[in-house]
Design brief:
Distance between the termini: 62 Å
Number of domains: 1
Strand content: 5-15%
Length: 62
């Protein structure tokens, strides 16, 4: 079984862990209906559209 020859330095470990957090950031796209930012594969909170059809009714004042 392979065993590391030396202990990884703190800076090397922290660099690796910091880079892993980049993947956890939410990706934001533009809604094709209203051009508001929204999370992909979710209903747009501004207009209520998903995949080109109305899923939720969103009131303008509330």
């Amino acid at each position: 079984m392979g065993v590391p020859k030396r202990k990884p330095s703190k800076s090397r470990m922290r660099q690796r862990r910091a880079y892993n957090s980049v993947f956890a950031l939410p990706q934001i796209g533009k809604c094709p209906q209203c051009a508001e930012p929204y999370i992909p594969h979710r209903v747009c909170p501004a207009c209520g559209f998903y995949k080109g059809r109305q899923v939720l009714t969103v009131t303008a004042g509330a």
